[in-house]
Design goal:
The protein is mainly beta. It is about 10% helix and about 45% strand. The chain contains four helices and 26 strands. The chain has helices at about 1-15, 30, 45-60, 80-90; strands at about 70-75, 105, 115-130, 160-165, 170-175, 185-190, 200-210, 210-220, 245-255, 255-265, 270-275, 285-290, 300-305, 315-330, 335, 340-355, 360-370, 385-390, 395-400, 400-410, 415-430, 435-440, 440, 450-460, 465-480, 485-499. It has a 16-stranded antiparallel beta barrel. Helix 3 packs parallel to helix 4. The chain is globular and about 85 Å long.
Length: about 500
């Protein structure tokens, strides 16, 4: 009998978290499973069941699409795998691209630490037609080749493109030390193979302690749980996703209310001006302009969040930036010299979250507006739009207003199959500054990005806990200020093995 009881409790430890739903909290599993009825009074069984229900109620860090497979402890003694899963989930980002709980774990003596590791191999195959983007993994609307463009020129005859890639494959480590103490410490390391020749790149590397998160990872301004699922690694063009060096703090007040604030590495990207000084003195014309300087003030993201039920939440975020540049410089010997360092304030506000209707229809939404913050929109990050020359004075810069938003609807056909419909729009209000320069190249106003559109329809099939398939169609369109436009279509499929 003792052997049978031990065997029964061992089976319980590998119950996948997603198999325990909210209705189970009202009625213990033992009442509904006849083979477990005789063990109802066992203390470990009850603790495991109610711990699983508690985990579902408080898993604020998890993406709605995350499904938890059984945890396999390959080294160490374990009494409660549900508690270990919860510790891993709390230490991981809410990124649908990476499982939030590993499949394999090592548990230290007396459970002084948990070390989990896992990843996935993801193969994609795609075909583009229209004005194909030269990137098999990331459908970046701003990189659609444009007729007459100097940055992404369209080459006659290039109207179709076939691609196969496995560069989105991923591996990660998730470690929690002193998991049952107030001073528990988390460590998370994540690699992806998007480098040239499949070279691994660090995607995230951070340490967490008492709500503090320090290292390299997603910005606090990025709401990962509001990101709808796509095969496309890029996702909606208006999504404010930034991977950055950071020092963030988060705190939850109970199960429903949470706040966060951070100091993150500034990443101002701007276009410098060069032209004739409009303030002519003594009939002498002089050439003036601006130059890039190192940034000295961190970006400050913050948010407040309210959770009100299963996959129902709303987050209000803010961003404050102070950016520096060298302005009012005179030309001397072909170079700009002199001048003084100037400051411009930028920032924005954002509303994002999820809604859930009867566990069948889940919504993902985000709406963002601001000035001097285009680096946070993933479609135009690093393209020199945070600040541009003033239209009437090339010796000064001004911030660029921008807004963007998306809505994604996920319909769950069954526990294994779901589909997404997504539309995203990003609009910039760049002033007509004439000529400028960015990264040493000419950067003229007429060829600059005005708005971009991104639409997706897909279906995902989780064949098992380790194997999944998906099919996706993407449409993207870019419009420039000179009224030149181009579009790209992509159909792609995916096979993924998670381990």
């Amino acid at each position: 009998m003792r052997r049978r009881i031990l065997n029964q409790t061992r089976r319980l430890k590998t119950i996948p978290i997603n198999k325990i739903n909210e209705t189970d909290c009202a009625l213990p599993v033992a009442f509904r499973e006849g083979t477990l009825f005789k063990y109802l009074r066992m203390k470990k069984l009850l603790l495991a069941v109610f711990a699983g229900c508690s985990l579902l109620a408080s898993a604020q860090h998890s993406h709605p699409t995350h499904r938890h497979a059984p945890l396999n402890v390959i080294l160490g003694e374990v009494e409660d795998t549900v508690g270990i899963m919860q510790a891993f989930i709390e230490n991981s980002p809410a990124d649908y691209k990476v499982p939030d709980a590993p499949r394999f774990a090592i548990v230290g003596k007396n459970e002084k630490f948990y070390l989990g590791f896992g990843g996935y191999v993801k193969g994609t195959m795609s075909f583009d037609w229209g004005s194909p983007i030269n990137n098999y993994n990331e459908f970046i609307v701003s990189q659609i080749p444009m007729p007459g463009s100097s940055s992404y020129p369209f080459k006659p005859g290039n109207k179709g493109q076939f691609g196969i890639s496995a560069q989105q494959s991923d591996i990660y480590l998730n470690m929690v030390a002193l998991p049952k103490e107030k001073n528990k410490v988390g460590f998370y390391l994540n690699f992806i193979f998007l480098g040239n020749g499949y070279l691994p790149q660090v995607r995230q590397a951070y340490v967490s302690w008492r709500g503090i998160e320090m290292g390299y990872g997603f910005s606090l301004f990025t709401d990962l749980a509001a990101d709808p699922s796509t095969i496309d690694y890029e996702g909606p063009n208006s999504f404010t996703v930034v991977i950055n060096a950071k020092f963030d703090y988060r705190h939850n007040f109970g199960k429903h209310f949470g706040i966060g604030i951070g100091a993150e590495l500034p990443m101002a990207s701007y276009t410098n001006g060069k032209g004739t000084d409009p303030r002519v003195t003594g009939g002498v014309l002089r050439t003036i302009g601006t130059a890039t300087v190192d940034q000295r003030i961190p970006d400050i993201p913050m948010y407040v969040q309210w959770n009100f039920g299963n996959n129902n939440r709303i987050r209000l975020s803010g961003l404050l930036r102070n950016m520096q540049y060298r302005g009012m410089m005179d030309e001397y010997g072909g170079s700009l010299v002199g001048g003084k360092t100037k400051n411009l304030v930028g920032g924005g506000v954002q509303l994002s979250g999820n809604f859930n209707i009867a566990n069948k229809l889940i919504g993902y939404y985000q709406a963002t507006v601001g000035k001097g913050m285009t680096s946070y929109f993933e479609d135009v990050t690093g393209m020199g739009y945070d600040m541009v020359p003033c239209a009437t004075d090339p010796g000064k810069l001004q911030t660029v207003k921008a807004w963007g938003g998306y809505l994604g609807l996920q319909y769950n056909w069954s526990s294994k199959v779901y589909s997404n419909l997504i539309y995203s729009h990003l609009r910039l209000y760049t002033p007509n500054y004439g000529d400028g320069s960015f990264d040493g190249s000419a950067y003229n106003f007429p060829q600059q990005y005005k708005y971009g559109q991104y639409a997706v329809a897909n279906v995902f099939y989780n064949i098992s806990n380790t194997f999944s398939w998906a099919l996706e169609y993407i449409y993207g369109r870019r419009m420039d200020w000179n009224h030149v436009q181009a579009h790209d279509n992509r159909i792609q499929t995916m096979l993924q093995v998670t381990f």
